[in-house]
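Open question from group meeting: does this chain pack into something compact, or does most of it stay loose? Before anyone orders reagents, we agreed to write out a predicted structure and look at it together. Recording both the input and the output here so the notebook holds the full record.
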Amino acid sequence: MGDQTQKDKLKQDIFLKIEEYYKLIHEPKSFTPGESRVPYSGRVFDSREMINLVDSALDFWLTSGPYGNKLEKEFKDYFGCNDFFLVNSGSSANLIVVSALVSQQLKERLKPGDEIITPAVTFPTTLAPIIQNGLVPVFVDCEIGTYNINAALIEDAVSDKTRAVFVPHTLGNPCDMDVIMSIAKKYNLFVLEDVCDALGAVYDGMKVGTFGDLASLSFFPAHHITMGEGGGVVINNNSLRKIAKSIRDWGRDCWCEPGQNNACGKRFEWKLGKLPHGYDHKYIYSNIGYNLKVTDMQAAIGLEQMRKLDLFIEKRNGNFKTLYAGLQKYSGFLELPKSCEKAEPSWFGFPITVMGGVNRLELVKWLEASKIETRLVFGGNILRQPGFSNFPHRIHGALDETDRVMNDTFFIGVYPGLTEAMINFVISRFDEFFKSKGLV
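Structure tokens returned:
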């Protein structure tokens, strides 16, 4: 038996054992209401992700490699973008998309003190790169129901220092991109999209992440697909392509793939910065960068997850519709989610704002007591968080709705691992809550 034949046979034997192991250990268990947990989100996978992971491990390509290349190509085709590359988290993706705008390689780069308009209801690592790059966030209020930036307030927030808008599509619900892109065009602003919660969401026939110059994705276990840790950067503005990838790859000027040595054909012929002529191009750094790459083992998982994306989105949106139908009768006490007319959400969660005398903490504790997981809408009003109490910023107008989100809003899960029995149990617990309060 030849070495290749023996290798293939060993792999097949291993893969069969993985299928057995998955069925024994990881196959979903039956649901017992009140005893089984109803997660707000989580991993959904089968033996194929595990086989891909082990296949990559057996090849022992520890850095990004063949699986990573395949997954990046699939995402590039999925978005129809100029380029796409993987990173080690959605937070790293946010760091890259903001840092790319301050690169000295960008002719129209942002400089310290320049402003970026963004909502005050946000995730910390959407805001952090703005601060870390010496830029000034300008906070605008959100809308209850969509939980996105109130696009009608953006234009009045523009000043002569404003250079960009950074908008998250909150909980998978697309922002009003007609208004945002119109303002960006009028004032020549860069547009960054945080799509970490919204993979697959569509606005007016276009996928979110394809409107702005750059966009970020997250593949944390809570998100639409997972690689454990991981993320991605969507590149629509080709002038930012090389810069963004450089920041991911230590800030280096070289564009050789791992294992390559002279892709440019003049490795020892460059003269850049104040370095001597002929300095090795593999060690010339044109940006302040980091090592933010993924491993091929992560990409191997992501590639199989990508095969399931359409089904995941269909299940998320189906669970959302069932919850909406079941909770609509409490519209006098619960503000249910809404979206723009042109939006086709890819729901990450089901956001609810209490009203009519209902106390959020009381309702959340009621649900959690039945092992129904709840989450708040990230940082609420980020300016009230202890780590974000002292940095240069500007607030445009009042943040009344933002504070209302902080005080009265939470969300429950819609992820594909939730069964019909789980969703019906969640609705029944809402029913019991309102009965116990004499509100129905």
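Observations to bring back to the group:
The chain has three domains: 84-257+283-296, 258-282, 307-436.
Residues 258-282 form one domain.
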